[in-house]
Amino acid sequence: MNPLAAILQALFPAVCAACGKVLVNGERHLCVDCIASLDESHETLSAQQLLAGLLPLQAAMSPFRFRKGNTVQKVVHAMKFRGNSELCLMMGRQMGLELLHSGRFDDIDLLVPVPLHWWRRLQRGYNQSELLCRGIAEVMPREINTSAVVRHRYTRQQSLQPGASRAANVDGAFRLRHPDQLAGHHVLLVDDVLTTGATLSACTDALLAVPDLRLSVATFCIAR
Ligand SMILES: [Zn+2]
Questions:
Q1: Which of 122, 174, 198, 217 has the fewest beta carbons closer than 10 A?
Q2: Which residues make beta-bridge pairs with 22?
Q3: Distance from Cα 169 to the centre of ligand 1, integer Å
């Protein structure tokens, strides 16, 4: 490490995005204790089961479990509300490893992040789901498409809506702009958190108009 970098690190030490502890050599974004305490969902079929009644899917996976106060919740908060874009990439790589390991997503040929409305994207500076896709693609090289489907209607934050009104909040929020870019592909639709499936369902409503499309879904975590 050059002297200037060493001084900067001493003055502004990097801290863990989940617990706030100062990171030591070799740690990036999360300390080893928090990485070890990421709750795995251990039931890759739960996303599949939850979405099976809602969507016609080839496969679905949510490798981590979101619970109130757990490390996964803190990671999601850092990804969405504290501007930690590097953490999104890192968690995307974790997702990529899980997808590869499962063997159920091998013939995916296109990654599509659930789009943000342009205004929310401007406020946040990035779309966390797009960065998750970039992390996935580092492990499982696939093209990423961010132009075929758009969120044309601004919606209130889903996590602040009671379960019953989530579907109405996002109903009709997505629109296909370039269906030709998706036709004939096996698309993996990627989002950060799966709760009721309302957002994925609304996005899928738009996607299912694409001819000859096969669709799978992966979210970083499931909150059930
Ligand atoms: Zn930590």
A1: 122
A2: 15
A3: 34
- Residues in contact with 136: Cβ distance below 8 Å, sequence separation at least 6, in sequence order: 92, 93, 95, 96, 99, 111, 142, 188, 190, 218
Cα-to-centroid distance, 25 and ligand 1 (Å): 14
Domains in the chain, CATH or no CATH each: 1-37 (no CATH), 39-222 (3.40.50.2020)
207, 213 in Cβ contact below 8 A? Answer: yes
CA 70 / ligand 1 centre spacing (Å): 11
pTM: 0.88
User: What are the residues facing 61 on neighbouring strands?
Assistant: 218
Residue 37 alpha carbon to ligand 1 centre in Å: 9
pLDDT in tens, 80-95: 988 899 999 999 999 9
Angle of helix 128-139 versus helix 85-102 axis, rounded to 10: 50
C-alpha–C-alpha distance, residues 213 and 207, integer Å: 8
28 DSSP assignment: B
Three-state SS for 200? Answer: helix
Dihedral (C-alpha) 57, 63, 67, 73: value to the nearest 10 degrees?
Answer: -110
